[in-house]
Write a structure and sequence with these properties.
InterPro entries: 4pyrrol_Mease, 4pyrrol_Methylase_sf, 4pyrrole_Mease_sub1, 4pyrrole_Mease_sub2, CobF
Organism: Halomonas alkalicola
Distance between the termini: 53 Å
Strand content: 15-25%
CATH architecture of the largest domain: 3-Layer(aba) Sandwich
Protein name: Precorrin-6A synthase (Deacetylating)
Pathway: Cofactor biosynthesis; adenosylcobalamin biosynthesis
Enzyme class: transferase
Number of strands: 10
Helix content: 25-40%
Number of helices: 8
Strand order of the largest sheet: 3-2-4-1-5
Number of domains: 2
CATH superfamily of the largest domain: Tetrapyrrole methylase, N-terminal domain
Order of helices and strands: EHEHEHEHHEHEHEEEHE
CATH topology of the largest domain: Cobalt-precorrin-4 Transmethylase, domain 1
Length: 258
């Protein structure tokens, strides 16, 4: 039996880690930290910092780092993601079998919250699947979710705005979907995540306001807001400069009809 805790750690500010997350970290016998390459070393560095600062001196938690498999960049996006998740699941199982052969409590530090555009839950579901049973890797798994502050919460807090217009719904989507399908019908507010850059250029820019943020919660946080027609070019220029400077970027934005 493996007790797997998916622990939301927010968007980069150690003060955003909840007391429940701290407790889950200290209860884990094994913490698995993914490395995503040199360009995103800030992400593993933050996780290392959290472990250093939040694990109690009496804790016997072992911290093990691993290299996250790379996703194939082929045109079949969903198929590539499916294969990628299978590869990650295999790594998880191998690590659990190596470091906790008799079972135990495993923790994973999840950026933001495990429920919002994170695939850890979907990967965990694979561990008891047919592919792993046939390979002798079957795991009896109990999953616990420890919620964390999401990038959308950090964005609206930083800009001091509500997520929704009065009595109106909010649609959360990706940059890919916004490019392919345009403005969603019957939506007044659209939150956009996982944008590789400038998906809002696919929209008619008149009549839209944008609140944009990058590296939310970190010391290099950057915010821009205003009518989209006025600030779109500024956002694109700033985003490119930040990515060049840091080697990676994580950003999110809210669009609203006005």
């Amino acid at each position: 039996m493996i007790h797997l805790s998916l622990i939301g750690i927010g968007t980069g500010n150690p003060e955003h880690v909840t007391l429940a997350a701290v407790r889950a970290l200290n209860q884990a016998e094994l913490l698995l930290l993914p490395r995503k390459g040199e360009a995103k070393s800030d992400l593993i560095d933050l996780r290392r910092l959290l472990c250093r600062d939040l694990l109690e001196a009496s804790s016997r938690t072992r911290v093990v780092e691993f290299d996250l498999p790379c996703r194939d960049a082929r045109a079949d996006y969903l198929g590539a993601v499916d294969d990628w998740h299978d590869a990650i699941a295999e790594v998880w199982v191998d690590l659990m079998a190596t470091h906790l052969p008799e079972g135990g409590r495993v923790g994973m530090l999840i950026w933001g919250d495990p429920s919002l555009y994170d695939s850890s839950l979907r990967i965990a579901e694979r561990l008891g699947g047919e592919r792993f049973r046939e390979g002798g890797l079957q795991v009896e798994l109990k999953v616990e979710i420890v919620p964390g502050i999401t990038s959308l919460q950090a964005l609206t807090a930083a800009h001091r705005i509500p997520l929704n217009a009065l009595a109106e719904p909010v649609l959360i989507t990706t940059g890919r979907r916004l490019r392919e399908r345009g403005w969603p019908s019957d939506a007044e507010s659209v939150a956009v995540m996982l944008d590789s850059g400038g998906a809002f250029q696919a929209l008619p820019q008149e009549g839209l306001t944008i609140w944009w943020g990058a590296y939310l919660g970190m010391d290099k946080q950057c915010l821009i807001d205003g009518p989209l027609v006025d600030v779109a070019a500024t956002i694109l220029e700033r985003r490119a400069a930040l990515r060049e400077r840091h080697g990676w970027i994580m950003d999110v934005y809210l669009l609203r009809r006005v």
